[in-house]
Amino acid sequence: MGKLRDGYPASPDIGEAPRRLYMPVMETVSTSEIERLREALSKFALRIAPEGQPFTLASGRESRIYFDVKQVTLAPEVFLTIGELVREQCYAYGATAVGGLAAGAIPIAMAVVAREAMEGSTKVRSFYVRDKKTHGIKESLYQAFDEGHPSGIISAESTAVVVDDVLTTGNSIGEATREILSRGARVSAIVVLVDRGEGGAQALRKEFRVPVVAIFRMDDRGNLSFLGGEVY
Predict the structure, then answer these.
(1) What average pLDDT score do residues 131-160 get?
(2) What whole-number distance in Å separates Cα of residue 3 and Cα of residue 195?
(3) Residue 127 is inside which H or E element, if any?
(4) Entry pTM
(5) Are residues 172 and 151 in contact, defined by beta-carbon separation less than 8 angstroms?
(6) What is the pLDDT of residues 197-206, one digit of tens each?
């Protein structure tokens, strides 16, 4: 796994439409690494329900196909590949922060910052959103420290990429995105590991007017194909 190019251009002004700042350097992740990740998702995350016994998805929909993606995002064999693929998108969209709703976003965000640490970089820091606690600091947003930004990495000065493991309707990602926007931050893109192709990308693009990027797309039989770019 090679290095990303050094640095990236400043983020566009808040009022501009989100756009890629440059195309990712795809040689940072080899074809064999991408294929290994695809095979891991197909072998360990994909579940096919028996006829007449569908799964109930987080969205409330029923489906014969279920992806238990955390089986893969938590695995050391492909952890850094996930981190580099998503980190490329963070760099491409000028992100200073990456994260989303617990728990799907946490392993992905941690994979990104693991790759950052390996390169000695602190350009992208992580956060996650969860139900507000009733004890301690009673927060719903948890974020890495940044000595240069005492108010936190999610602020009016920051640009975030919101991530999740699977996209169906977009409800979970929408919840996290609204939380980040409410803090004054800018969201430059939404990135998911697997897009089920069930309308979530279109719904998110319509509401937030940002690019929706998928690493893999799923067809109606559960087969995955590498995309690594915008769905909608």
Answers:
(1) 77
(2) 27
(3) strand 125-129
(4) 0.84
(5) no
(6) 989 999 999 9
